[in-house]
Amino acid sequence: MAASATVRVEPEVRDRINQLAAARGVKAAQLVGQLVRAAEEAELLADMNADFEALNEDPTARAAYDEELRDWDAILLDGLGDES
């Protein structure tokens, strides 16, 4: 059995977690895990978007990035035969 911990939340929040978990057919602990993973993924995507915005604001860095993409595209599947 996996280790567990207690997290204190307001009764209203607990009730909302339980309602949402029931609606999704999962246990409350599973729902909390899913919500945490979703929040982490959303934060990662927001960070990546901010990085791409910064990249687009720097013409020199954007040119270097585009050049590297072209280099990688040029070697994509390099030397592999058509397997279709």
What does this structure look like?
The protein is an all-alpha fold and 84 residues long. The protein has a domain at 19-75. It is 71% helix and 0% strand. It contains three helices and no strands. Helix 1 crosses helix 2 (28-56). The longest helix is centred in the middle third of the chain and has 29 residues, at 28-56. The radius of gyration is 23 Å and the shape is elongated.
Main sheet, how many strands, which sense, barrel? none
Give Rg in angstroms: 23 Å
What percent of residues adopt helix (DSSP H or I)?
over 70%
Shape: elongated
Mean pLDDT: 92
Number of strands: 0
What class would the helix/strand composition place it in?
Answer: mainly alpha
Q: How many distinct helices? A: 3
In whole angstroms, the N-to-C terminal distance is 47 Å
Strand composition percent: under 5%
List segments where confidence is low: pLDDT < 50 over at least 5 consecutive residues: none
What is the ordering of alpha helices and beta strands? HHH
